[in-house]
Amino acid sequence: MNKVYIDEECNLCTSYGNWISNKNKSLDIKFQANLSSHEINLDTLVYEKNGDRFYYSDAVINSISDLGGIYVTIKVLKIFPKIIRDNVYKIISKFRNKF
Asked: Domain range spanning residue 80?
């Protein structure tokens, strides 16, 4: 079973967890407290698929594309270098409490 680890104190993260779990009933939503201290300190959404863990923009892209259907098109974002995608993720994350 695939898992998404979210920060339960973040409204944006909780909303994302609710949205994606409504779309994918077999997805397990967990809280960051279930992660290692290193992963908690990354301050990112974590997506676990088949034992592999994805962080930052890769976590969002992979968790959404795994919904299938039209959601697979989000993979087009991978044309941008990972460093750019992750920096955009970190900017959004920095201001997430304002959303």
From this structure: 3-98
